[in-house]
Design goal:
It is a single chain. By secondary structure, this protein is mostly helical. The chain is built from four helices and no strands.
Length: 97
C-alpha cells in the first residue's frame, strides 16, 4: 500500500475528533494538577497520548474486510468470557477485572 492510499484510508473526521477529545481531557487534567498542587498526572497522560497515536493510525488504516469471517466466532467467544467475569471475586471493590 502506498503512502497516498494509506492517507486516503484514514478517516480524518474521527482522527480530528479524537485529537480534540485528547486535548480537552489533557487540559482538564493539567488544570486539576494545578489546583491540587501535584503535577504528575498531566505528564503521565501526555506519555500515554503519544504512545497511543501510532496505534490509532494503525487501527484506522487497517483493512477489516478480510477479517469479516472471524468476527462472529470471536463475538461468540467473548460472550462466555463476559459472563465469567461476572462471577470473579471482587478485587479492591472492582468485579470487572
Amino acid at each position: 500500500m502506498t503512502t497516498a492510499e494509506w492517507i486516503r484510508r484514514v478517516p480524518w473526521t474521527v482522527v480530528v475528533c479524537a485529537a480534540g477529545l485528547m486535548l480537552l481531557g489533557l487540559t482538564g487534567i493539567a488544570h486539576g494538577d494545578r489546583l491540587s498542587g501535584q503535577g504528575e498526572f498531566a505528564g503521565r497522560q501526555t506519555v500515554w497520548i503519544v504512545l497511543s497515536l501510532p496505534a490509532m493510525f494503525a487501527a484506522a488504516a487497517f483493512p477489516y474486510r478480510p477479517l469479516r469471517w472471524v468476527s462472529y466466532p470471536l463475538f461468540l467467544l467473548s460472550l462466555p468470557l463476559l459472563v465469567f467475569v461476572h462471577f470473579m471475586p471482587a478485587r479492591n471493590g472492582a468485579r470487572s477485572w
